[in-house]
Specification:
Blueprint (H helix, E strand, L loop, with lengths): L1 H8 L3 E10 L4 E7 L11 E7 L5 E7 L8 E6 L7 H7 L5 E8 L13 E6 L3 H14 L5 E7 L8 H10 L3 E7 L16 H7 L8 E7 H13 L7 E6 L5
Parallel strand pairs: 7-8, 7-10, 8-9, 10-11
Antiparallel strand pairs: 1-2, 1-6, 2-5, 3-4, 3-6
Helix pairs in contact: 5-6
């Protein structure tokens, strides 16, 4: 039975786009109706495949943004020189079909089955799988304390901005910290620098608290954050990382 389940997740299926939501000028969330979807865990991803009329295929992986049990959504950032993301962000419409397989991944996941503190650190579109974890915590009403440190270049590039503001205002036990690295609006009270060891010291729990840590962003971002956390004394086994690089989009 286990082998059949794995085979199902790795089989391609056509999901129908039920809605799209523009998150920023370059980022879109795509809601999908996948009839054979087996369900997912917070932090997993799917593979998406596009096939051209001449038979050429391009395949990319995208993190799942929705909480387990709350349907299937992916959030995609358009890369100007990409093969897949420009179509998904600019061309895809409700009612279109999209070929995908998944869910995939079992390492970078948070199931919410214990009450240990959780530290989430995101750079840019690295927020996507971490947003699934935040949404999952709220859905299951977990009591695990959770903190998000989110680095963006400008306020207009903050993905899920309105939702994160609501979570910060209303969700007990969830704290949201922003840092804007290029420009800050008038009256900005958040951080205004790249994430460094001192910023991590200010936001994260003490190593002795035994927090689980999830870091997602570009390779350089992830390496800098992980090195900072290790220098502060966090257990290497408590730090899970997911990175994206120059894959062509």
């Amino acid at each position: 039975m286990a082998g059949t389940a794995v085979l199902g997740r790795l089989s391609w299926q056509v999901a129908q786009v039920s809605a799209t939501v523009d998150e920023t000028a370059r980022v879109r969330t795509i809601r999908l109706d996948a009839g054979q979807w087996p369900g997912h865990r917070a932090g997993q991803h799917v593979d998406v495949r596009l096939t051209a009329e001449d038979g050429y295929q391009a395949e990319r992986s995208y993190s799942i943004a929705s909480a387990p049990g709350q349907g299937l959504e992916i959030t995609v950032e358009r890369l100007e020189d990409g093969e897949v993301s420009p179509y998904l962000v600019d061309e895809l419409r409700a009612g279109d079909g999209l070929e995908l397989r998944g869910p995939i991944g079992g390492y970078f996941v948070w199931d919410g089955d214990d009450d240990r503190p959780v530290l989430l650190v995101a750079g840019g579109s690295g927020i996507v799988p971490l947003m699934a974890m935040i949404r999952h915590r709220l859905t299951i009403e977990s009591s695990a304390p959770m903190r998000l440190l989110y680095s963006s270049r400008t306020i207009d590039e903050v993905i899920y901005r309105d939702e994160l503001d609501r979570v910060a205002a209303d969700a007990e036990g969830v704290e949201i910290f922003h840092t804007l690295t290029r420009a800050q609006p008038a009256g900005w009270t958040g951080y205004a620098r790249r994430i460094d060891q001192e910023l991590l010291r200010e936001v994260s729990w003490a190593p002795a608290d035994g927090a689980g840590v999830f870091v997602c962003g570009s390779t350089r971002f992830v390496e800098a954050v992980a090195e900072g956390l290790l220098a502060l004394g966090h257990d290497p086994l408590s730090i899970k990382t997911e990175r994206f690089g120059g894959t062509g989009g």
